[in-house]
Amino acid sequence: MQTLKKLTILLLLPLSVFSQQTTGLFQYDWQTEDGYILWGPIFSRNQFVMNNCGEIVHAWIGDGITLGNSIYLLEDGTLLRCAKADTAVSSPIGAGGGGERIQMVDWGGNVTWDFIYYDMDKRLHHDIEVLPNGNILAIAWVLMNQADCIQAGRNPSILAHGNLFSERIIEIEPTGPTSGNIVWQWDLWDHLVQDFDITKDNFGVVSDHPELLDLNWLNLNLDVPGESDFIHLNSIDYNADLDQIMLSSQVLSEIWIIDHSTSTQEAAGHTGGTYGKGGDFLYRWGNPQVYGRGDETDQMLWRQHDANWISDGLADAGSIMIYNNGLDRAVSFSEVDVITPTQSSPGVYELGSGAAFGPTDKTWNYHAPDSVSFYSYFISGARRLPSGNTLICEGEKGRMFEVTYTGEKVWEYVNPATVNGIISSTDPIPSAGGGAFQGNIVFRAEKYPVDFSGFAGRDLSTGVQLESNPILANCSGIVGIDDFNSDLSIYPNPTTGVVTVENLNGARLLIYNAVGQLVMQQTVLSDQFSLDLSSQSQGVYALDIERNGERLFRKLMVQ
Length: 559
What we know:
five-stranded antiparallel β-sheet, mainly beta, elongated, Immunoglobulin-like
C-alpha cells in the first residue's frame, strides 16, 4: 500500500488564544506518520483508537474494568489489556500499576478471554507481551515474608514493611474463556547475591556477580528506603530473533535481559538455555552501582519506563529504545534514549573483567530544546515508527507527541479525559494523587499503520473529538502532496491579517473558525494570492481546500 505524504495548513492568528488551549490536538503536519493511535486514559474506563486529527474512530466503552496499565491490538483487531476489577483493595501487595487480570476484548466490546492471576501471594502488574505463538508474557509481584527475606540475606534493618515484593515472569497459554496454562516461569528470587550475612543464602561478592541481583542495594531517593516494592518492573519486551526478554526496573534504574530459551527448571538455575546461563541476567544497563561496578557518576537511567527493542526494518533496528524519565536526577527532565549494546555474537553481550556493561554513549536521543519542559517523573513510553519518527507519551501530562528522527515535533495531542470527566479544550486540567500529578495521565500509547491487519473491514472513516469546543474542529487538512505543487507556500503564519498563498492556482479555499463555522471562502485565480483576514476576530482557524468540486480537506463528523 502506497502512503502519500501529507500536508496540514493552519492559520494561527493570535498566539494569545492558542496559548489558552489545554487539551485536544495542538499540531499535525505533513511529516506525521500515517496511522491510528491506541491509548487509554488512566482515570477512564474507556480505551480509544484515534486518528491523527485527534478524532476517536473507535472505542471500547467502560464495563467496570479499570486498566492495569498496558493495552495492545492483536492482528485480528482484538484489544489485549492489563486490567483490574477494583477487588484487590485488600491485597497485601499494593503499589502503583497493580492489576489482577489480562483480558482480550473483541472489536465489538465482548470479553473473549479473562485470565486472573491474583491472590494474597501474587499479583499481576504493569505490562504484558504477546509472543509469536500467541502465548502471553506477564509480570507479577510475588510476596516474600520477613523470614523468606532474612534467609535470602536481606538486612533486617532495611525491611521497612517486613516483607518484599519479588518479581516473576510467566508465559500463559490461553486455553479457554477464563483459563490458561503457565508453560514457562522465571523468578527473580532465584538470582540473588548478598554480602551482608555469610550464614544466609546467596552470600558472595556483589561485584563478582553482575549476573545476579544485590538483595541489599537501596535507592535512597525513595520516600521509604527499604520499602516492599524494591524492584518495580514496569515493562516487558520480547526479541524473537534472540529468544530473549527485556525488563525495566524503575526503582533500580536498570534494564535487564534474560534468556527465554530455557526450561522453567533451567530458568531457576544458573546454567542451560541457548546462552548457557540459565535464568541469570545476560545483560543489564543503566545504573552499574547496583552491581558494584560504578558509582552515581556512571548512572545513565533515572527511573525509566518502556524499554523495547526497535523492530527490523525501522531506523536503529535491533537497538533498544528507553523512555528515560529523569526522576532522581539532579535536574529533572525526561528524554528518550536509544542504545546499542555491543555483542560478540547475536545475543551475547560483551563485558570486560571488572567493568560495567556498555555502551557509555547513545545511538539516538531526544529531549526538549531547553531540557526541562519535557518531563514526566513516572509512567510514559516511546516507540519508533516506520517513517523514522518516534511516538512519545509524556504520561504524567497526558501528552502524546511525535518527532522526526532529527527531533522536530510534528504532531501533538493532550488527553481531555480526566479524573473529573471529559473537559473542554480550554478548561484547566485538574490535579490528582493529592496534587502529585495531573488528572489526565496516560500510561502509554501505541501507533498502528493504516494497513494494520486488525483494521481490515473496520470503518475508521468517521470520528469525533473527546473534548468539547475543540480548537481544531476542522482539522482535516490532509492531502496527498501529489495533488498540489510541492512549492505550495502559505505565509506568514502566525499572521496579523493578510496571508499570501503561492502555487495553489485553481483551488477553492474555505476557512473555518475554532467552533467549525465557515467564515470565508475564496477561489484562487493566480499563482500568488492574498487572503485578508483582518475583519475576522482573533482565534485559531483551519483551512480547507477544494479542487474540481472535490473537498480535499475533509472534516470527519459523527451525527
